[in-house]
Amino acid sequence: AQKITQTQPGMFVQEKEAVTLDCTYDTSDPSYGLFWYKQPSSGEMIFLIYQGSYDQQNATEGRYSLNFQKARKSANLVISASQLGDSAMYFCAMREGGDSNYQLIWGAGTKLIIKP
Amino acid sequence: DTGVSQDPRHKITKRGQNVTFRCDPISEHNRLYWYRQTLGQGPEFLTYFQNEAQLEKSRLLSDRFSAERPKGSFSTLEIQRTEQGDSAMYLCASSLGPDRANTEAFFGQGTRLTVV
């Protein structure tokens, strides 16, 4: 079973509009972290935002916010006031808790294209 | 630049040849990870080092693959007798341990391997 599911392979959004990228996850571990990364065409994975399973409030980082709905196991990324430079692949990833855990589990990504 | 650096950025090789990639993590980071990413997919975990010790290898890492981190600083990933299926982006990441659910991994720009 997929642990991270991103159902939108691609999205087109008009510049300056807000955009929501979907991510659902599956884990039985009560302690986990959810990450969003941006990957431009240059290839580097750029960390955007993090949400912990015990965090009471939704994470925000500048124009990025995470709509965390724990009961639904969803962690959607919201980008406000989109810019042309936001065009990239966006990946949702999860790290499950535990001292020996080390790997990120990734979704397939969403390709976001911002139209001028 | 104090980020994660990878060399080379691109490598084209003939099937059957050996290739070696290098990763220099952020200097104080004791954790180092290798991931592989094929076109249109999220990264897949390959292996993980804590200092110089290789603590885990994915089943994706066949006998043709070997990774080292001899002094707990830079790491190399070698692929012997390359096959066309090895064509992918190889991503290196580092983090400062211990690994918890909220540990952020910092990624390099990747090495894109094309086997012809």
What are the SSEs and their pairings?
The complex is a heterodimer of chains A (116) and B (116).
Chain A: E1 4-5, E2 10-14, E3 19-21, E4 24-25, E5 32-39, E6 46-52, E7 60-61, E8 64-69, E9 74-79, E10 88-96, E11 105-106, E12 110-115
Chain B: E1 5-7, E2 10-13, E3 19-24, E4 31-37, E5 44-50, E6 53-57, E7 65-68, E8 75-79, E9 88-95, E10 106-107, E11 111-115
Parallel strand pairs in B: 2-11
Antiparallel strand pairs in B: 1-3, 3-8, 4-5, 4-9, 5-6, 7-8, 9-10, 9-11
Commentary on this structure:
With 116 residues, chain A is an all-beta fold. Chain A has strands spanning 4-5, 10-14, 19-21, 24-25, 32-39, 46-52, 60-61, 64-69, 74-79, 88-96, 105-106, 110-115. The model of chain A has no long low-confidence stretch (mean pLDDT 92). Chain A is built from no helices and twelve strands. In chain A, strands 2, 5, 6, 10, 11 and 12 form a six-stranded mixed β-sheet that branches. A four-stranded antiparallel β-sheet of chain A has the order 3-9-8-7, with no helix packed on it. In chain A, strands 1-4 form a two-stranded antiparallel sheet. Helices cover 0% and strands 50% of the residues of chain A. Chain B has 116 residues and is mainly β. Chain B is built from no helices and eleven strands. Chain B has strands spanning 5-7, 10-13, 19-24, 31-37, 44-50, 53-57, 65-68, 75-79, 88-95, 106-107, 111-115. In chain B, the strands form two sheets. In chain B, strands 2, 4, 5, 6, 9, 10 and 11 form a seven-stranded mixed β-sheet that branches. A four-stranded antiparallel β-sheet of chain B has the order 1-3-8-7, with no helix packed on it. In chain B, a hairpin with a 2-residue loop joins strand 5 and strand 6 (53-57). The model of chain B has no long low-confidence stretch (mean pLDDT 91). Chains A and B meet through strand 5, strand 6, strand 10 and strand 11 of A and strand 5, strand 9 and strand 10 of B.
Kindly state the mean pLDDT of chain A as a whole number?
A: 92
In DSSP terms, counting alpha (H) and pi (I) runs of 4 or more, how many helices of chain A? Answer: 0
Residue share in β-strands of chain B: over 45%
Structural class of chain A: mainly beta
General shape of chain B: globular
Q: Give the integer mean of the pLDDT values of chain B.
A: 91
Instruction: Using the CA coordinates, give the radius of gyration of chain B.
Output: 13 Å
Find the biggest chain interface. Answer: A-B, 31 and 29 residues
Q: Give the end-to-end Cα distance of chain A, rounded to a whole number of Å.
A: 38 Å
Q: What is the general shape of chain A?
A: globular
